[in-house]
Specification:
The protein has 3 helices and no strands. By secondary structure, the chain is an all-alpha fold. It has a domain of 34 residues. The longest helix is centred in the middle third of the chain and has 15 residues.
């Protein structure tokens, strides 16, 4: 796949709502979990294709998107 530009986003979580250290302890890699959530919701909404989800999550084949 060709080198495509990536866009970086920042999400601010208020300390009084959730401590990032607890989220990390429960979920592990917050960046990966956030990317997965974005990909799933985009796919469900019909905004993203299976190919785009595959690229976003670095999956080896298209069939992993349907799992």
């Amino acid at each position: 796949m060709s080198q495509e530009k990536k866009r970086q986003i920042t999400i601010e979580i208020p300390e009084n709502v959730a401590c990032v250290c607890y989220i990390e302890a429960e979920w592990g890699n917050i960046e990966q979990r956030t990317m997965e959530a974005l990909a799933v919701e985009g796919y469900r909404a019909g905004i993203l294709t299976a190919g785009q989800v595959r690229w976003m999550l670095n999956l080896s084949c298209r069939y992993e998107v349907d799992i």
